[in-house]
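The data are quoted verbatim for completeness:
=====
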Amino acid sequence: MAARVATDADYDRVVGSIAAAFYDDPLWSWVFPDPEARTEQQATMFGFYVESALPNGTVRVADDHASAAIVYTAPGKPELSEESEARIEPFLTGALGPRAPAVLQTLERFEAAVPSGPPFYYVSFLGTNPDARGRGLGMGLLAEVCARADDEGAPAYLESTNPDNNARYERHGFERRADFWTPDDQHVVTTMWREPASGSAR
């Protein structure tokens, strides 16, 4: 698989691939329920994370078309820049109106679930454009990040918003840590933790 670090020039393609990948995701389609507005709203939301990660070199893409992308954070680094974080609540309030408080509460649950302790690689988003599924692109990108974590003797962490994906993450060494739910108790998020592979650097 041809993979590379994304640049600013890849921004639109990265955000587009992730938004397409998460269009039918149980959690993110609950966050943005209007099917006609969802793609644009998700692109804006996911863009906050992409624009925060790009300057750190922690967005990787598969192939020249960025058909799959992984957005992650290196140990000890913030997931969001201060500027991007400050834009999330106003965006959600404007886009969602009376639904915004429940969504913001869900984001608070994401934050509360983040483990304390040793620094870790934090996988924010991993997505493959539906047109490119079945080629192992997304899991290949995840394997690269896991290998980097192993080289450094660092653990890794992610949140799975679709139970159908949990087994895929488990095959890469992630183990289920805990669950939390949306305020209406309709959608579960599973937090998953991966210890560095045995024999990796310490």
